[in-house]
Amino acid sequence: MPQQQSTAAQPKQKRTYRKGNPLSDADKQRLSIARKKESRKEIKVFVEPEIKALLMDMCKQDGLNQADILKQLIEKEARCRGKH
């Protein structure tokens, strides 16, 4: 005769999170910025909304982010001026 299971189901225990406590979004952002600061320099600029729109269009067309587009533009201008 087969064994009968009890009618009260045993609750499953959740698997423990093995990687430690998950980081908050703010902590992830801080770590990302810290990693970038090791090999890059920050540029903060204010431009007219029309210029920003042009930059965003370039990003969308090329599938690149703002940093990559600005890097390409600066390198191109430096080559034209004979500085690169």
Automatic annotation (TrEMBL):
Biased composition (Polar residues): 1-10
Stretches the record annotates as Disordered: 1-39
Protein keywords: DNA-binding, Plasmid copy control, Repressor, Transcription, Transcription regulation
Classification via Pfam families: RepB-RCR_reg
Biased composition, class Basic and acidic residues, residue ranges: 25-39
GO molecular function: DNA binding
GO biological process: plasmid maintenance
Protein name: Protein CopB
The species this protein was found in: Izhakiella australiensis
